[in-house]
Design goal:
The protein contains four helices and 34 strands. By secondary structure, the chain is mostly beta strands. Strands 15-14-13-17-22-19-20 form a seven-stranded mixed β-sheet, with no helix packed on it. The chain is globular and about 65 Å long. Bound molecules: CU-O-CU linkage and copper (II) ion (2 copies). One copper (II) ion binds next to strand 7.
Amino acid sequence: MLRRTAGATGGVAAARLVACAEQSTTSPDPIGGDPSITPSPLPIPERIFGPLINLEMRPGMRAFLPDRPAPTKGYNGDFLGPTLVLRTGSDVSLNVTNNIGVTTTTHWHGFHVPAVMDGGPHQPIAPGAVWPASFPILNRAATYWYHPHLHAAVGSGVIFDPLSTGYQVYEGLAGMIIVEDATSDALPLPRSYGEDDIPLILQDRRFEDDGTLLHFPSNFNAATDPALRKGGHFLVNGVEAAVLDVGAQVVRLRILNASNARIYNLGFSDNRTFFQVASDGGFLRAPAPLTRLLLSPAERAEILVDLSSDEGATLRLRSFNGGMGTMLVPFPLQDAWDNSNFDLLEITVGATRSNAVLTIPAGLGTVDAIPESEAVNLASPRPFELAANPFGINGKRMDMAVIDQRIRLGDTEVWEITNPTTQAHPFHVHGDSFQILTRDGFPPPENELGWKDVVLVRPSETVRIIKRFHDYADATNPYMFHCHILEHEDVGMMGQFVVEVAP
Ligand code: C2O
Ligand code: CU
Ligand code: CU
């Protein structure tokens, strides 16, 4: 029932947000959604570098609302976790200690690793146990992330919530991963972490009156209750109403949508053009000029913002969801913020700092397009239907005991994802990154012509992706494919594939 109040409370906030969106100078929009929150500096997660990384999943406390501390969880801290910095071609060992008191896992989202190192539902970490993961870094330079990845559903849609991915991520278990390689070394991009190369982890939250994070009943039936964890408190790096001070220069923002279900339509308060330079799994060919960037759950985008002539200015990173209508999130699934503009972060521009980058590069290199002719199934792509009734993929829910797809090592395949539902689903595939071939038969926009591991599939849309299944085979341990709206994943909009050596 508490979830039903979203519309009501959202309505009031939406009225305020819409009113403020008309540029009234007397009562500016609150940054983050709640005007009672005092702005504070954007926290920058500390970095941990390979090759040996220790992560402790632990309980914590944080007062998101003044004087109302809430129990949380984090990696090596109270909420969220450190940024892991890894180098392509090197090896990494990660020891993940579970001190949260219930079973969990930790998945390296976007990483091309052996299935047993993936950290998905088949690599549970018991309370008190340590999971030693190790693998070589084969990924391209880009921004990735890590988070728990349990499968909690028992029976047809009943979930034990504390053992769900949605619950554990909402409590704070997530962190960013930055991969660097020779390509990123050579590009004239901002690279001073926290100075001009800024991690931005976007999350929305809802709180109970006592300040604790929104609770679901511990055994809710997700099949009959389409509840999602959304809210009107917008956190960046775990803090609402954050302010980022930067120099008058080009600034690189590494944006991760780590929200359970929220889609953001990002832009700046002055509608300036910015440039996307990287998508989920690598750099684009050239900076893609944009005024809006749609970022669905689990997607990442690195953007450059040219602030070189803005000394003394203040601008906001804003989500322009007001124009989205019901196209991506229809009634009754929509809340007020799916259809209103709201601010996420304030950016204040000071003097140009030393070693500033002052221009947007013209090019970034090449993206080796996977040729369609390389696919073994171009004429009959492997189908994935994201359906609401019955809820799941290809007519079934995730079943830990069922391998849904078997793929031959070394094959390149085309997958065709269809969405007959009335809402958009961000479809994610584990293992190496893929490329988007077409959306409804047409090539995707420029900023999607690169390496991806999540693709938002709109209602009634058909998306074709191409992916290589190489390097690692394991006939018994699967990888996952799923909707990255975490409550959808938890209820069973997920399936499993193995990559195996041809018989
Ligand atoms: Cu972000 Cu299957 O995961
Ligand atoms: Cu993943
Ligand atoms: Cu979904």
